[in-house]
Structures are given as C-alpha cells and as structure tokens.
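Lab notebook: predicted structure, single chain.

Context: the supervisor wants predicted structures on file for every construct in the current expression panel, including those that have not yet been purified. This is the next one on the list. No modifications to the sequence; it matches the entry in the shared construct table.
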Amino acid sequence: MSSGHSHPQRHPDTEWVARCEHVWITHISGTPIAGILCAWRRHPVRTREWQGWVIFAELDATGEPYVRQSWVEAGGIQRLD
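Prediction complete. Output recorded below exactly as produced.
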C-alpha cells in the first residue's frame, strides 16, 4: 500500500472532479479495504477539505458481502499500488 493520499490534482471551477481509480479506504474498519474512487468534491461544510465518492464491499454481521458507496474523507483514501 502506498503512503501517498489520492487527493485531487487540480482545483476545478465545478464542485466535482470525476475519477475512476482503485484505492484503499483506510478508516472504515481499521483494516484497509479496496474500493473504486468515482469522484472528488469539496467538503460541504469544511470547504478546504475534500471527500471522495467511493464504492467498496464490506461484510455484514452474518459474513455476507454487500456493496456500499459513500463519501469518504480524503485522509482515509490512499492509492492502490
């Protein structure tokens, strides 16, 4: 796993930066989870911070996998090497 975060490389005029990149999500369960980063946006309240729209799989309480999508703080997203 790379130590570099996958932050936006430019500051767009719009609120969204489209992406399609494999990443690690590092703050959901404590164990890195592979996911797909689909877009970036500025945090709706803390406008100096970024969030990534990520799709990833988790296991429910019975051990069954399910797909989840959510905004994840940029500090919890790392490039997948």
